[in-house]
Amino acid sequence: MLEMHPMSLPDTMAPHPDEALVKGKIVLCDEFQGTTAVGLVSGAAGILIRTLSPKDVANTFALPAVILSQKDGTIIKTYINLTSNPTAIIFKSNESKDWLSPSVASFSSRGPNAITSDILKPDIAAPGVDILAAWSPNSPISMVIGDERKTKYNIISGTSMACPHVTAVAAYVKSFHPDWSPAAIKSAIMTTGN
């Protein structure tokens, strides 16, 4: 169990909290980007209150963290304010069924197209959330400056993570039908995929 400390951070992440106040503590952050500052000032972990961030996006942080809804964040704030020595434990994550699957993620191309309303939807959709992919060892795992951890793989989300799935399917089809055009491959995927 670690002592907790509340912290409010503007979007710019400045000013950073006093290191002496948060060192070795779990820090409650009002802003989703809060763990950036917590990690830079030796906090042990972060409890982040979700504001506008979509619920179907995975995040990688520079230190242990949990993301709460506004409602749960308010309960934690009340606990901190009514307790002389607030403490918390962040337990290991548990595997669970993703009930949003197979929906297209909120950040991805659901359609209709915002620029050309004649395009009603993407023709082919693929996973783009929590995808294990190659990662440059020159880039921090959490994309936070000061995070020294290095790895060859990372779990990230984004429309760009869906592209390799569809590309691999297209390459697979092309390996059996090298003379097919891109339109023929697209048609085959659209009419046989599920």
TrEMBL record:
<dbReference type="GO" id="GO:0004252">
    <property type="term" value="F:serine-type endopeptidase activity"/>
</dbReference>
<keyword id="KW-0732">Signal</keyword>
<dbReference type="InterPro" id="IPR023828">
    <property type="entry name" value="Peptidase_S8_Ser-AS"/>
</dbReference>
<dbReference type="GO" id="GO:0005576">
    <property type="term" value="C:extracellular region"/>
</dbReference>
<keyword id="KW-0645">Protease</keyword>
<dbReference type="Pfam" id="PF00082">
    <property type="entry name" value="Peptidase_S8"/>
</dbReference>
<comment type="similarity">
    <text>Belongs to the peptidase S8 family.</text>
</comment>
<keyword id="KW-0378">Hydrolase</keyword>
<protein>
    <recommendedName>
        <fullName>Peptidase S8/S53 domain-containing protein</fullName>
    </recommendedName>
</protein>
<dbReference type="InterPro" id="IPR000209">
    <property type="entry name" value="Peptidase_S8/S53_dom"/>
</dbReference>
<keyword id="KW-0720">Serine protease</keyword>
<dbReference type="InterPro" id="IPR036852">
    <property type="entry name" value="Peptidase_S8/S53_dom_sf"/>
</dbReference>
<dbReference type="GO" id="GO:0006508">
    <property type="term" value="P:proteolysis"/>
</dbReference>
<feature type="domain" description="Peptidase S8/S53">
    <location>
        <begin position="102"/>
        <end position="192"/>
    </location>
</feature>
<dbReference type="InterPro" id="IPR045051">
    <property type="entry name" value="SBT"/>
</dbReference>
